[in-house]
Amino acid sequence: VSSAVTMKGTQDEKERERMALSQAEVVKQSIQEVRRSLPVFPYREDLLLAIQQHQILIIEGETGSGKTTQIPQYLMESGYNEGGMKIGCTQPRRVAAMSVAARVAQEVGVKLGNEVGYSIRFEDCTSERTVLKYMTDGMLLREFLTEPDLASYSVVIIDEAHERTLHTDILFGLIKDIARFRPDLKVLVASATLDTERFSCFFDDAPVFRIPGRRFPVDIFYTKAPEADYLEACVVSVLQIHVTQPPGDCLVFLTGQEEIETCCELLQERCRRLGSKISELLVLPIYANLPSDMQAKIFSPTPPGSRKVVVATNIAETSLTIDGIIYVIDPGFCKQKSYNARTGMESLIVTPCSRASANQRAGRAGRVAAGKCFRLYTAWAFKHEMEETTVPEIQRTNLGNVVLLLKSLGINDLIHFDFMDPPPHETLVLALEQLYALGALNHLGELTKLGRRMAELPVDPMLIYGPGCFCPQVLTIAAMLSVNNSIFYRPKDKVVHADNARQNFVVPGGDHMVLLNVYTQWAESGYSTQWCYENFIQFRSMKRARDVREQLEGLMDRIEVEVCSSEGDSVPIRKAVTAGYFYHTARLSKGGYKTVKHQQTVYVHPNSSLFEEQPRWLIYHELVFTTKEFMRQVIEIDSSWLLEVAPHYYKNKELEDSSSKKMPRKQGKAKEELG
Ligand code: ADP
Ligand code: MG
């Protein structure tokens, strides 16, 4: 009997194996079919020929035509990886690099991280076997530090070139330069249907290869009057579409994680209330900090009878293509960095997107069939209130880190660097001044030892406090700050509990100290998920902070800095933050704060642990403009430290009212007096 059972068992197994095999075969076949159906496929041979004939080629094609996933595979298939050479493909966004690499690994039929991999900041998913490497533009930029001529690459693809991120723009200049003495290097600049003439022009009239797109007509609808609350308008529009429109998935563009989560919650709640009166609506978010298994969900096919709504950041504008979208809802906003070169203030602002962006968004509705785009703004606003195109990031950002990087690549004359669009002169000068103030450059504008170290570490300057010494607590803080505002969980139905939990973490000193406290307690819990759950802390953000922290520790080990712990005493920690961020100092002043150097009025963010206390002197981590200019993540300092850590930057006079040595702990009275 037993042998019969075993027999049967093995037969079953074989059968199952056969079935699994044939299933894999089916998947493989359908993958090949999908690959052949993409708009780029008929141009495969022409494209390869053009690449063979030209060193630099601009490739223009509608989003979803297969530029990112297919062209690198064509290159692999025709041997560009021979002799262990790599094909690199840059993406402006982390999520896109990861998601596309995963997809291509699947298409090629290899495990992600083997032949096909990706590399993003703090996460390297490649191996010696990797020949096709997707990466963020920032990561390729860093590779210049170790391999100035990119000798291990046979092809570099600068993808999503139209996004014109700071890093992509710098890559343009560097790659154009090395292409001159690397005649064997192929350079492909891939872009959506935008700006390609400019790219061609910049790269000495490189030819443009156009992949004709298939695009179905998209009907565009505007609102009659401006929307007071675009989030609510999105929710209502989705439900209206769901109830009144024929089948087809829906894509909503919002500006960030918080908005997206709120929108998804609202949609789910209203669907629950409507119950069986409506068919199923699958609500799926996508944004940078979303875990990758959740990200992958947006690509799974919609079950018949239901409708999918993807609520996305700009990532879905051109970086990721979701099949089956027929309806697009576009409130017309995006989150943009903006920089005031006069005051040196950088802030993230929700602003109207450009007309070019709006048109790309609308285009997402017409990939598979005729579609509809609902713009939650008026036709007048489209014409008169939106810019034609988005200003390249290089013209609206702090250039500190880029200047540092270029200097360490030996590029000293930044004024004459080959920029496609040069940054404003003041911005460049200010960056040089700040780096000088930090001690990264000497008075000749040359990189100092400290500057070189700063360039090697893709981290906050505050980590490098004092001569070759840092404290692990500061490392934790830097890691926590890098996961930026996604630590505390505040679900709508448990606001009171969540706020109480948050209050329990408050310690004197400010938000940096609170973050450190959260991390320390979590570590003491054994990095427990349950602990996070009980304390309204987002587990995945903490996990990420832990990853970042480990990587930073590795980096610090590599450059052999000494460790000097400051357990139990917050002063050295706060001084370290001051040393790194002294140019972000604000002083209490009537009704709010004033930045020390530029007398700009700013306010403590209501979420801050120092919102009530309002100490006299603060260092802020970042500024966010919503209803007014808010400082997010602030730490209380003693103004005398400023003279200690940045004597070249501050004069005694500027810090005058600090003459009362100790800050009074109770600021309530002072606040009243100030009215
Ligand atoms: P382009 O770069 O020209 O915009 P892509 O190469 O990104 O085009 O996309 C080609 C096709 O691959 C699209 O139909 C898209 O839906 C599909 N695709 C891309 N990434 C994924 C993924 N992670 N899962 C499933 N399909 C994907
Ligand atoms: Mg692409």
Automatic annotation (TrEMBL):
Its main location: nucleus. GO terms for molecular function: ATP binding; hydrolase activity; RNA binding; RNA helicase activity. It is an enzyme of class 3 (hydrolase). Residues 654-675 are annotated as: Disordered. GO terms for biological process: mRNA processing; RNA splicing. Residues 48-212 form the Helicase ATP-binding domain. Its EC number is 3.6.4.13. It catalyses: ATP + H2O = ADP + phosphate + H(+). Residues 237-410 form the Helicase C-terminal domain. GO terms for cellular component: catalytic step 2 spliceosome; U2-type catalytic step 1 spliceosome. It is found in: Nucleus. Keywords: ATP-binding, Coiled coil, Helicase, Hydrolase, mRNA processing, mRNA splicing, Nucleotide-binding, Nucleus. This is RNA helicase.
